[in-house]
Amino acid sequence: MSISTLGIKDRELLAILSENAREQTATIARRLGLSRTTVQAKIERLEREGVITGYGVRLSDEYEGGMVKAHVLITIAPKTLTRITTELHAITEVRALHSVSGTFDLIAIVAAASIAELDHLIDRIGAIEGVERTLSSIILSTRISR
């Protein structure tokens, strides 16, 4: 199912769940102007159709504020994407990995407890066989997070 086939209420429901996946169904129903059973049925349908594939933990601003985060742009050798993706997936400090167009092939969003740990992490990424080059930018602050 694609975003274009979802109704407005489905998209609003997904936005609410993205903010707080533990929000009570009755509260969501009031916000959407729907009955609780209708909201529950929509959630079950979205799960069944694979639109919702799971629920996660959202960390507090206080905890996240103590982390040093960075974007690591990565250039890789041809035909190494699958192996490098697997190796990066095994590194818990890699929060997200995006394939991108342009000069670099991948962008990793990483988080570490300190600058020293971030430095070690970037070295670890650069040492992966097939990684040809990295360029890092430390995130100073997050202006919008959804």
TrEMBL record:
Keywords: DNA-binding, Transcription, Transcription regulation. SUPFAM superfamilies: Dimeric alpha+beta barrel, Winged helix' DNA-binding domain. SMART domains: HTH_ASNC. InterPro entries: AsnC-type_HTH_dom (IPR000485), Dimeric_a/b-barrel (IPR011008), Tscrpt_reg_AsnC-like (IPR019888), Tscrpt_reg_AsnC/Lrp_C (IPR019887), WH-like_DNA-bd_sf (IPR036388), WH_DNA-bd_sf (IPR036390). Pfam families: AsnC_trans_reg, HTH_24. Residues 9-68 form the HTH asnC-type domain. PANTHER family: HTH-TYPE TRANSCRIPTIONAL REGULATOR LRPC (PTHR30154:SF53), LEUCINE-RESPONSIVE REGULATORY PROTEIN (PTHR30154). This is Lrp/AsnC family transcriptional regulator. It comes from Mycoplana ramosa.
